[in-house]
């Protein structure tokens, strides 16, 4: 069911005032500190079915890396007479409520407001408020959903390309169905970014960006303390240029709806599906529901490596709080594992008796190895203990495919024969917290998973509860290790099922090397090959294609095309290892865009010659001048 906010809104000029100092002034004002808004308290006053909100846009000082971190002087929204907030005040009403929002522009430059304007369209509606002027917008939303409003002072840049002083002029609008009560664990998160205005930083592809959730960057983002079995309902809004494949460790979430800020689709029961990773694109909104079935520490994060690691900007100061966090981890004997930016931490307290460990488990020995390459960079690889590859001087990528059985316990001993600490995340597997693979966080209380030191090992145990396609990859020094070879496929089979590599094909896409220069386009590998051999298929035979994206920082466009470039047809049968509802497992054009951390299973019965094409999707925001996006790789699919 698709919903949209009203097509018309009343706009009233209510007052003018003296011009404030120019917005370009960049001194730190400690009296105008911007506070993080957790989007739990709706703004304004509700009386007689009318919500009245009086807001102001003004400049303030923002501390995304905690109170001791480097300050940013930016514009933000505030309720009149209250502190500035990032995100701006939450507008939350029941459908049918009239909303009257007055916004005063105290920035000293014109403010163009989107999301509350006179006409609707994808970020096209706009109202310009002159310096010192205040305007009132009136509208009556009738359709439930998650929407947004935003402001900009740069008339050249597109809304999602805002990078500097106006990049935090964002807020959320939630319209609840009439006659319902808000969920107690209904939380709202807005992703935004700030990028230095230096030309080098502007083309850094997010490497030097400050990326935040509700105004804060990990390890300063809000920590969530919930109980095992709680029902959690989360809403997400993205107001950045890059897309974000958001990934949950340990559990599946249900996708309940999506929108683009001006329209929203509430999914019916038949339209809902499970995922562990879901892309949220610029301006998109998303609603998910999930329940932590196992206790311990878990994370929800963007799967782009640059967006979960510290900024690659040596000029920026690291906050003292982050240093304290690292020192605490070191004191517990945990090797330093730095995560940053788009990460949330969830601590789940136990409810009931913990499960007993399996008595018998299938032993597996997995080696982590590294070698210097001719370009001076380190390369990494996995190998099975006792295999010929374990003693080979050549590192093989991807790592060995692990064939597991549903409900069969495994004990995987990970031996680190590389030159630095390492860790392994079992992506998509529903397991206990300790073996999940995030050093210094996975586990519970003081029993936390350590990184595996060079020359050491650790044994992790889990029992896969469902059949499907999964993967394993590094969760230490992710920018380097994931891009340089530490990844592999996990296939979990039903009891009695046998794996047939002839009809069951894994298409694992990865990086050919780390993106040493931010903003560059590194070619992709298919199953470790830069120039893959032609695929051989038989006409009339149904194949299962297990498509995995473990690129470190790039989305991937994949298609199967026939004569004249027309897409073939395939049937989507599973997402991230979870089978799709029958109503969604239908034939569709064989073209797909998937983010890092996403996995799709398709079935296809070929009837003619095809081409497999893969490469970079067309970006939503044009690349910087001089940056050329490579053409897709074409692989012949010979059907005999």
How would you characterize the overall build of this protein?
The chain is mainly beta. Among the domains are: 2-158, Cupredoxins -  blue copper proteins (Immunoglobulin-like, Sandwich); 362-499, Cupredoxins -  blue copper proteins (Immunoglobulin-like); 524-639, Immunoglobulin-like (Sandwich), CATH 2.60.40.420. 3% of the residues lie in helices and 42% in strands. The strands form nine sheets. Strands 1, 15, 16, 18, 20, 21, 22 and 24 form an eight-stranded mixed beta sheet that branches. Strands 2, 3, 4, 5, 6, 7, 9 and 12 form an eight-stranded mixed beta sheet that branches. Strands 37, 38, 40, 42, 43, 44 and 46 form a seven-stranded mixed beta sheet that branches. The radius of gyration is 25 Å and the shape is globular. The protein starts with a strand and ends with a strand.
